[in-house]
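Complex record, two chains
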Amino acid sequence: MGTDDAFTAVALPHLDAAFNLARWLTGSRADAEDVVQEAMLRALTYFPTYRGGSGRAWILQIVRNTAYGALKARRGERVAQYGGADEVAAIEDIPDPTDDPEKALIMSDNLARIDALIEALPLELRETLVLRELEELSYRDIAQVTSVPIGTVMSRLWRARRMLAQAAAKGDRQ
Amino acid sequence: MTKPSGTILEGDSRPEGSGTGTGTRNTGDCGKLLLLQAELDGELDAAQAAALADHRAGCPVCKRNEALLAATRRALQGATYHRAGPELVRALAGRISAGQAPPRQQAPPPRRVAVGWQGLAGFGAGAALAAAIILTLVPAGRPGLVAALVDDHVRALQPGHLLDVVSTNQHTVKPWFDGRIDFAPPVKDLTAMGFPLLGGRLDYIQGRTVAVLVYSRGKHLVELFLWPASRGAGEPASTARNGYNVLHWTANGMSISAVSDLDPAGMEEFVRDWQRAP
């Protein structure tokens, strides 16, 4: 198998996953298309260093890093870095919503609305949630893609879900 | 960082101690919050889950958090999964064939992978990419047919091509084929097994009309291609191990191929369920 063909086999089945992640990170189809093209070219260049393992996590890691580069360059969006041990502990920094968040989420079955709620999450929470819920990646793969420890993946997931519930409850009050 | 094997909750990533004194600030954590979440995400092994179950049974905080996590999961099922469009595939093929890929003159490629990245510009569509994928993955057997099936599967994923008859009811889908083709494909309801039927369509593949049934599992689609068999029964043969998986078998005078991006285990489960269903 030549390099190109091996690359084709490893990378291309994950084109949709690559695009989905890029779209959720950048917020626009056009930006996501640029990011995916760039990422796939990078992946082709890096491919000789690919040592097996989850092809999807490998591709998504490159897509994610490319997207972060694009966000920095194009919008100056704040790109969070891994916050260290404090962040792992910070699972309680979101106060309890006063209303019933479960009820609010159950009622938010409007598709555009749940998309908007995800869009409103901070970048590092959004990417973790998208990788878990839409790509169905394991904690281990999410840790690889986002370059943080698994404990951080877990606390980010909780914060993302809790913020989502809180935002849903807030939206219902207005 | 990540560990190559073992359970995820080892050593310094173990979350129980992470509350460190903040647990009394509100009612959000009983010390097992992240373990509970991991359990609901399918990340705990049996021993860890059993240990958690003892605590969970009498913990009102866990009960509340479980409800919240279940509610977020349900809500997130409505979130949009953004798929790559054909224009992106075309642009990608163009850029890669425009000389940005590494040169490949070192060794002449084997003949069966003649449709590689370099050759894609002339094709310019998702179908060509799928053909490239499958030619790479399927070294032997019936590459022509498998390529055609995956080709068709990928083409069907483009907007508006998936279904001719849209129905989750087997008794609607089955009669739809009557009068359109000269064979009666079995249409089975696999909803109880977690593969709800989405509908069906007709396609023309390698010179014959083929009935296609479309099932779903989560975000994945499984397409079943059926046409009259020329030979007797045959055991399922898997023809790809990465990316698109194709499982082909013969039963009751039908040649049947399942095509999906589901993992091999999911594909085998689908085929088993299909074969067992009445």
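Note: Chain B touches chain A through 70 residues (CB under 8 Å).
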